[in-house]
Give the backbone structure.
Amino acid sequence: MQPILNLNTSEIATWLTEHGQPKYRAKQIERWIYQRRVQSFEEMTDLPQALRSELAAHFELWTTKIIHDPEATDGTQKLLLQLHDGQSIECVLIKEGARRTVCMSTQVGCGMGCVFCASGLDGVARNLTTGEMFEQLLCLQHKLAEDERLTHVVVMGMGEPLANLNQLLPVLNRVSSPEGFGISARRITVSTVGLPKAIHRLADLQVPYHLAISLHAPNDELRDELVKMNQRTGMDAILDAADHFFEVTGRRVTFEYVLLAGKNDRPEHAQELAKRLRGKNILVNLIPYNPVAGLPYQTPRVDDTERFQNVLTQYGVQVQVRKRKGDRIDAACGQLRRNREQQIVTLSKPKRV
């Protein structure tokens, strides 16, 4: 059976026409899926019974299975989803005040080579389909109370979003449409490790979403070490692409900077970064590292984080520090998936005799 979430409105309407049904039923079906939180076609009660049965016979509404769903004391919820081919991905629901933010994945694993990130330790297996990205949003939406709704989406989960842009854009279009999740485009952020050509493409498409670029270093020498993809791009090309994005869209770019204790969090790193970014209409988002088992990197001291922030501020660079959320449930990108797989491998080892 075909996953219905891989189809757009036009494709569903075409199928309906071919099966003797009016096209307007397509929007009814989508309304049930994206807004009314149904779990099955049978629950779509304003559709004829015969059509509901036919939909169930031809399409799958769900192709993923929740295999782990821990919740942190701060309300952060993380899902480990098993895909149809046995691969697994993560998505996160972050609750803060009235905000309900989804962090979604775009690939199984990641091929960008960030040495401190759990997502990329085993490389990238494949791109996610449009439907698999929708299912993350829907699974987390079902975790909300009836009077709650998703308010923000950040594409900062497993994978490099701009390496799967053709599948991602239809998802974001649906997320921001009144017929979909109805989330304002101003509340959607796409994160990238920095693929200059793809950033130019995103800008030239005039997309209304925010862009966040994961920088993590003030120079190419250190970034080549921390983010292997940088060896193929270089920081100058990334910063030029960011300038182009701002010029075309008018949307300020955020630079993400994960602080690794003793590695990229020294005052000299802050000064060098400030000199490269000063005068630009940007925001730096400092992220104290969330440790990953088996990796040598550690969370910086609070004093070091504050000093780094102060140096940027002194140079006139706008900066904020991201609050840590969900660290007790492996909420950093890729942690839950990797830890779960390691547990499975350990448990499956034959006993010694």
